[in-house]
DNA sequence: GATGAAACCTAACCTTT
DNA sequence: AAAGGTTAGGTTTCATC
C-alpha cells in the first residue's frame, strides 16, 4: 500500500469501470502495471468489491434527516448504541464533540414514518431533546459500508 | 424500469465490472441488449456511478466529522454539489431545513487532513462559516449503498 | 439479435532496480 | 527477487444494420 495504490483506489472510487490504461495515464503507470496492482489489491482484500451507486428513489427511501441528540446528565455510549440500534430508521449514529451528545442520520419512506422513528429516539431514557434537519437535496453520497 | 432492469442492477451491485455477456446469460438477454439497458439506466440517472468498496481498516479513515455549512445569500444546490464533490474527504452532503444550508460528513486519515479538507470547503464561494463536530465513537453504521 | 472494427483485457516475456 | 514496460492474442465493447 503506497501512494500510487491510494491514487488508483481514488480513481476506481470515481469510476470502477475505468480502463487500466486510463488509470495508468493518471497515476503514471502502464496499463499492465495498473492491472497487476488492482489484482493485488483485490487478492489482499483491500478492494472488497466493484459495485454501483443506485438512485435511492428506486429503492424508496427518499426521506432523510439529520438529528442532534441532547441528553440529560451523562449517558454511556453503550446505552446510546443500544437505544439507537433498536430503531431501524437509524442509518448512522455517533457521539460527537460540541454541545450535542450524538449525531444521528435517519432514513425512511416518508415524513410520517420519519416522525414516528424520531419519537422512538426521543422517548428513550435520558434523552432531553433533539434538533432535526430534514435533508432537502442529497448532494454527495459516496459508498461507505464500514 | 421493469424486472429485468432490477436483475441487471442486482448483478452490477454484486460486480460492477461484469461483462455485458455475463450479465446477459444470467438475465436471459444478448450482450448488446444488456448494454442498451445499462446505458439507459445510466442516462436516466438510475445508476449514479460505478465504484468500489474498500476495506476501511486499510485506508485508515478513522477521523470523521459532521459539518454544518452556512452560506451567504442564496447558493444553488448545483453549485454546492460541484464544490463538495471536488473534495474527496466528503463522504456525504445534503441541503437541509433549519439554519444551516447544508450538512456534510467528512472522513479522513487524521485530524490534519480533515482540517485541510475543511479549509477547501470553507474557501468555496459564498461559504460564510461552518460548524463542526468531530465524531468520538461510531455507534451505528448500517450498510446503505444507494 | 447479429455483425465487424476498434478498444480493451490478459498473460507471457523482457528490462530495470 | 520485485516491479514496471512491451508485445501479441483473445475477448469485449460499441456503433450500425
Helices and strands, with pairings:
Two copies of one chain form a homodimer.
Chain A: H1 3-14, H2 20-27, H3 31-43, E1 47-54, H4 56-59, E2 63-71, H5 77-85, E3 90-96, E4 102-108, H6 111-122, E5 127-141
Antiparallel strand pairs in A: 2-4, 2-5, 3-4
Helix pairs in contact in A: 1-2, 2-3
Chain A binds a DNA duplex (17 and 17 nucleotides) through helix 3.
What does this structure look like?
- A 4-stranded antiparallel sheet of chain A has the order 3-4-2-5, with helices on one face.
- The two termini of chain A are about 20 Å apart.
- The first copy, chain A, has helices at about 5-15, 20-25, 30-45, 55-60, 75-85, 110-120, and strands at about 45-55, 65-70, 90-95, 100-110, 125-140.
- In chain A, about 40% of the residues lie in helices and about 30% in strands.
- Chain A has about 150 residues and is an alpha+beta fold.
- Chain A contains 6 helices and 5 strands, in the order αααβαβαββαβ.
- Chain A has 2 domains: about 5-45, Winged helix-like DNA-binding domain superfamily/Winged helix DNA-binding domain (Arc Repressor Mutant, subunit A); about 55-135, 2-Layer Sandwich (Alpha-Beta Plaits), CATH 3.30.70.
- The structure holds a DNA duplex (17 and 17 nucleotides).
- Chains A, B: GO terms for molecular function: sequence-specific DNA binding.
- Chains A, B: InterPro entries: AsnC-type_HTH_dom (IPR000485), Dimeric_a/b-barrel (IPR011008), Tscrpt_reg_AsnC-like (IPR019888), Tscrpt_reg_AsnC/Lrp_C (IPR019887), Tscrpt_reg_HTH_AsnC-type_CS (IPR019885), WH-like_DNA-bd_sf (IPR036388), WH_DNA-bd_sf (IPR036390).
- Chains A, B: Keywords: DNA-binding, Transcription, Transcription regulation.
